[in-house]
Amino acid sequence: MQGIWTTARIRAAEDRLLAVTPDGELMRRAAFGLATQVSAVLAEGAGGVSGRRAVLLVGSGNNGGDALWAGAFLRRRGVAVTAVLLDPAKTHAAGLAALRRSGGRAVSSVDGPQWISRADVVVDGIVGISARGPLRPEAARLAGLVEAPVVAVDLPSGVDPDTGAADGPHVTATRTVTFGALKPVHALAPQECGEVVLVDIGLRPSLGEPDLYRLEPADIAAVWPVPGPGDDKYSQGVVGIAAGSATYPGAAVLASGSAVQATAGMVRYAGHAADVVRARWPEIVATGSVTDAGRVQAWVVGPGIGTGAEGREVLRHILGQDVPVCADADATTIIAHTPEVLDARDPDTPLVLTPHAGEYERLMGRRPGVDRVAAAREAAAKYDAVVLLKGHCTVVAAPDGRVAVNQPHGSWLATAGSGDVLTGLVGSLLAAGLDPWLAAAAAAQVHSLAGALAAEDVPTSASGLVAAIPAALRLIRAVA
Ligand SMILES: NC(=O)C1=CN([C@@H]2O[C@H](COP(=O)(O)OP(=O)(O)OC[C@H]3O[C@@H](n4cnc5c(N)ncnc54)[C@H](O)[C@@H]3O)[C@@H](O)[C@H]2O)[C@@H](O)CC1
Ligand SMILES: [K+]
């Protein structure tokens, strides 16, 4: 699993490492890695390195120092380097001296525009992990003039390092070069960061346990259930799907189909869309009611069941079965409006909730806000459940504090019925006995990958998503 650390933890680790490292050594390592990446962007975008023009946007902190030192390294490779100093009196002195010694130029922000307009690459050293809030007006004005590819130092300035919030003027980078460890911004603001490159500066041993995680293909491949020689249809876990209605059978077909595609075990369906489900997926054992569905190892409940008395009874029955439950869509609304249905649940039985922002508001009485990690954690604690908070970057929080952030593959999942597919994936993994946090996080990753594969650069549908699940799993197993 890829670890991610909050800036407070990073700074504490940096302090420990700085105390045992020669002066300036960490910044030198960071700047060298940065210069290598700027050269690569020049080579790709401007067809070469020597003779190309780099402009550094330099703020008052060490982030600007990194940019200046990188500028000195770039000079050695024949790059024409101009530093635009946003706050000349507070510029990192050693970095500026190094740049000047190497033959680089420094100008004030008044002269910035003429250099920015001719740049082949712009290096964003405005602010790093110590800053909060959007770009100040002068930096925002200069950043707004940039047309060349941008390499962000540590993070795109103006984006919040710990929440990824980009709710004011900010830099949007082609590539972000970060040092020592990934910070939350890199997982939570992928569009602003562009490609993220991690430069090792020797920080890892000082860091301790991560604050957040991102599953890598190998993590998913390691836990995704595949049948072994001793398996039969029951031994791999049977998932029950309580979804859809006679009028709206779509949710039932999508959630059930997703479960069929995800794992090799058995899928049972219970509800008013049994005929439609059976016709679309003949391998499913379908009945009209949850009370005669037969034994399952996990339940998916909610999409399209309605929020009235019948839906409430279905949910209450399922929560009382002592098997893991993924409660989605209408089930979330029922829980929000009549939390006493949760009394039917044995507290030791895993529950996964999968709210989008609107359902989150119903559950918690407030919008998730900019700190989506904190929002998911709070809901997980309140409901003693794994909470999968949907969004461009899905956040999965467990009641024990573990948080995973999903890496999106485009925005193809913004399509009707996409959530039903995700629920089916979560349910089939719960039935296979996965840890519920891992099940939700792995399902979210496979879901977004399936979306990208189904779309292939043109919009897809939820049905396309269901069809692409095997391809997503094949790809994950291939790259793991
Ligand atoms: N500490 C270390 O060991 C290392 C730090 N490194 C670099 O140092 C950076 C952190 O440096 P600093 O702690 O000096 O902080 P920053 O470079 O993030 O700059 C903070 C400064 O920016 C100003 N500022 C705050 N908010 C602002 C805003 N919204 N707009 C404009 N200016 C604002 C403040 O005056 C503050 O002095 C990292 O991001 C990384 O780039 C790297 O060199 C690796 C090693
Ligand atoms: K920056």
Automatic annotation (TrEMBL):
Q: Which residues bind (6S)-NADPHX?
A: 62-66, 128-134, 154, 251, 304, 356, 420
* One Gene Ontology MF term: NAD(P)HX epimerase activity
Positions contributing to K(+) binding: N63, D124, S157
What are the record keywords, sorted?
ATP-binding, Isomerase, Kinase, Lyase, Metal-binding, Multifunctional enzyme, NAD, NADP, Nucleotide-binding, Potassium, Transferase
> Could you provide one GO biological process annotation from this protein's UniProt record?
nicotinamide nucleotide metabolic process
Q: How is the cofactor bound?
A: Binds 1 potassium ion per subunit.
Matching entries from HAMAP family are given as: NADHX_dehydratase (MF_01965), NADHX_epimerase (MF_01966)
Question: Quaternary form?
Answer: Homotetramer.
Record function comment: Bifunctional enzyme that catalyzes the epimerization of the S- and R-forms of NAD(P)HX and the dehydration of the S-form of NAD(P)HX at the expense of ADP, which is converted to AMP. This allows the repair of both epimers of NAD(P)HX, a damaged form of NAD(P)H that is a result of enzymatic or heat-dependent hydration.
What protein am I looking at? Bifunctional NAD(P)H-hydrate repair enzyme
Source organism (scientific name): Amycolatopsis sulphurea
Q: Which gene encodes it?
A: nnrE
